[in-house]
Amino acid sequence: MILHYCYVYAYKRTPRAYRRDCFGIRARRLVSPLAGAMSSDGKQKRERDPIGSLVRVLDALAEFGDRPTGVRELARRLDLPPSTVQRTLDSARNASVVNATQDGKWTIGWEMFRVASSVTNLKPFLVCQDELDLLTERIGETTVLTVLDLEKNQRMFVAASESSRPVRFVPECYVWLPALAGATGLAIVANLAESDRRRIHEATPAGERTLRIRTIADLESTCERIRADGYALSENEVDLGACSVAVSVNLRADILCALGVIVPQQRFEPPDDAMLASIRRTASRIATKFGSRER
Question: How high does pLDDT run on average in the chain?
């Protein structure tokens, strides 16, 4: 989980033309349900998870970008008491993870950028960029690399290559999205152990699943079809007007990954053999770079 936030700080410069997830919620709103729990009398509980509090504060600072942000503004964003935010910032400042300006506002500290720079080299998306660019050039559509976190039961784009066409999908990296909606998520889930699929289904609210997956039986049927076809398809499941085809990428055991192509609905057609072959070749080259896991 910490890795995700490191990525945010180093790469929070993605286009904002597409600033919503499949339910029209900005990335920063994904933080709110986890923050500021309420007691039975309606009062905020004191934060009892200092690491969780730090991660949420850092994520909020990253959302504000380069603009220094005050404690009360952060507290409102996170629905946390200002005193909790202040304690978190004071502790983080001692490690240079955040910096304080002369007027009492806060920004991400240089130590955080140093750590983020080191961490990004441990994961596949940096050296995969050239492969995504080649695939996008070949098929003329936006391509994305997606990872699934089994702790969060969610997925996110960690690399993308935009199509040059005027009408195209503009992905935003490092935003958590539901695992059971969208082709890239389902391509990964279909190849998990049955126990993991059931756990993800139970952990995912009904409103965050594609409409074709209402029950565990629906999920198993969908996954069986994906495994038989060798790819996953989605149409208008994550974003209206966006369709996708994806294949799983057989990386190391600690990385659950899929490669996807996202196409505007007006020019989407079921993938032909040539497109599928291009996607699979790219997935194979990506896997070769990092060493395939044993099946």
Answer: 81
For residue 261, how many C-alpha atoms fall within 13 Å in the half-sphere facing its CB? 30
| Single pTM value for the model | 0.68
- Do residues 259 and 246 make contact, with C-beta atoms less than 8 angstroms apart? yes
Q: How many CA atoms are closer than 13 Å to the CA of 39, on its beta-carbon side? A: 6
- Assign domain 2-119 to a CATH class: mainly alpha
The helix (run of H) or strand (run of E) holding residue 197 is: helix 194-203
Handedness of CA 172, 176, 181, 183 (dihedral sign): positive
Tell me: domain 123-290, CATH 3.20.20.60, correct? no
Residue 29 has pLDDT above 50, yes or no: no
Encode 58-93: b = buried (16+ Cβ within 10 Å), e = exposed.
bbbbbbbeeebbebebbbebbbbbeebbeebbeebe
Could you tell me the residue ranges of all domains in the chain?
Answer: 2-119, 123-290
Q: Which residues contact 242 (CB under 8 A, 6 or more apart)?
A: 169, 236, 262, 263, 264, 265
Q: Are strands 154-161 and 98-100 parallel, antiparallel or unpaired?
A: unpaired
**What's the pLDDT score for residue 172?**
86
